[in-house]
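In the current project phase, we have settled on a layout for protein records. A sample record is reproduced below.
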Amino acid sequence: MLSMLLAACGGNGEEEEDTDASKDEGTEETSDGPELGQEDLTQPYVAWARETISTHMLGALLEKVGYNVELTQVEAGPMWSSVADGSADFHTSAWLPATHASYWEEYEDDIVQVKQVLDEAPLALSVPSYMEDVNSIEDLKDNEELGESVNWEVVGIDPGAGIMENTEEAFDVYGLDNWELTTSSEAAMLAELEAAVENEEPIIVPLWKPHWIFGTMDLKMLEDPEEIYGGAGDQIYTVARDGLEEDAPRAYKVMEQYDETYEMIDEMMPKVHAEDEDPAEVVQEFIDNNPDLVDEWLDGIPTE
């Protein structure tokens, strides 16, 4: 009887150990991935061509994995400063090393580069291709005929944009003393560009790629021998406030896995900017039509 009792007790102990081990294994297998953490996120952006698409895309992906994301349209300065001071959480519009160099220099101690999402983003002063005698920024210097034809103006976008700072620097470096950079918005600049092209008139504007306008007009970027606009081009990064990785691990993981191609951005930009479709709807359509790509972006991350 004693032997039977010991055998019975030994059997129960083994079963309990096996059960506990099974529970541990089950916990690992059903892990929910990175924790949600802070549920409410704020994403500031400037309504530039690519940025409108990218911001809505990343916002939609984060909502898919459980976050509430507020998209806030601002100018470039507040976009950077709000992430640096923690009143916003991240943005996907850091053009480095050239275009946003001044912002990065000011805020790099408080902002983290999470992921390079696009590896080539050239910027330059640009003109319609029918302006055959203008191929370099150097061609603007002391060009009386051209200057008078455009009232010595380069038609710019919103003040504070990195490309505007580049252009002001280009005026100094290339000795364009007679020229003036006007400020407006991207939409206003494009309206002037479209009107000029329709009448085949001269115009000079700052532009960048990716941008939907290159798919609708025959334009050329002017050569920049001094590489004021960054030479071969910037790279575009998603950046976040210091501490977001700890506060919202799941969101940070999504940002680390999200990237872009020219093809996907070029597919969506005309729908939003040329056809005036709702960017949220355009992005959702892309998500619905590209499940494999979305699975790559959200690999190992539970969706709500």
The beta strands are 40-45, 68-73, 90-96, 111-121, 123-128, 153-155, 180-182, 205-208, 219-221, 234-241.
